[in-house]
Amino acid sequence: MLGVSQATISLVLNGKPGISKPLREKLTNQIIELGYESMLAGHENTQAETEQIPAGRKNRGSIIYLSYRSKQEDWNDIYSFYAGVLEGAQQESREIGCNLVIMYRNCESDLTGAIKDTGNVIGLIVVCTAVTDEVLNELNSLKLPYVFIDTFDPTHPVNAVNVDNLQSFHMSVGYLKAKGHRRIGYVQCEAESSSGEDRRVAFRRALKEHHLADRKENYFNPGFSSSPMDTSGLEEQFRQAENLPTALLAENDQNAMRAVNALKRIGKRVPEDVSVIGFDDNPLSRICDPPLTTIRSSRHRIGRECVALIMRLKRLYRTDTTQVPMKISISTELVERESVRDLTKSSEEEE
Fold this sequence. Notes:
Blueprint: H1 6-13, H2 21-33, H3 47-52, H4 55-59, E1 62-67, H5 71-75, H6 81-95, E2 99-104, H7 111-118, E3 121-127, H8 133-141, E4 146-149, E5 160-163, H9 165-178, E6 184-187, H10 194-209, E7 219-220, H11 232-240, E8 247-250, H12 253-265, E9 275-279, E10 293-297, H13 299-318, E11 327-330, E12 332-335, H14 343-350
Parallel strand pairs: 1-2, 1-3, 3-4, 4-5, 5-11, 6-7, 6-8, 8-9, 9-10
Antiparallel strand pairs: 10-12
Helix pairs in contact: 6-13, 9-10, 11-12
């Protein structure tokens, strides 16, 4: 998160020599701002220590980054979507003079008390798989503005900053069609989520808008696995398919890479036999074989916009303005690499 090596962080946390004083002070302040001061060697939660914290940092407002997911879910991959969002939120918070404090709901027995102990809390950035009545009731009881990340649920209107899935899939399906692909399949995530469902809806709509067939047999589910390299589920489905699509769109890069590996294991070449497009521009997509064409979502921008929206909501709350939920959609871009075959050039060569 701080852009330095594990070794450097270890020196700071343990108070060991080996780095310059300015860098140590900078990283120490950032660690405290992130809410991890308890990891610093010699830290004790005493009044005396609290009074040593610079007044400017102690008195300024805080934004809570509240995750209803587990730490394992959020950080099982150092390149995860939420890590990028968090970094953007941290940068924006620092620039406007706020603290950003990370909390995991399953680690807090008393959420209200934990937020009260934080001090001057301005609002919350919320991460969860799906918006439920239970989550909303808890958040509303806090009497603070809150913004969800990448959440799609028409039955629960909430403030949210989202990836523009409609634009994303219209662009990627159009790109494949321009490359001569007419049979396009879809590899969905193993776990259900509101964002995953929205991407599936966006894919179906994109097929319709581009006048392409939407066939049930062209949908594939890799199944749940703790290993991102487990391709057994997809291998079986690909083998059973009577006529594989010429191109596959995946709900995220991890499943796109699983699809690439599964295709190879059943004797198919990518992109010669089947083209593949991912979603999120995970750094691993660049070293995939072949390098993966993907949709790049601006994770940092989403994090920044979450903080900006909280500040806007704070002003509205202060003036008692009627609250109408707002959704901000962040556009994406196609990153073209080597996993898509241009069928129009193949046709021209054959002619």
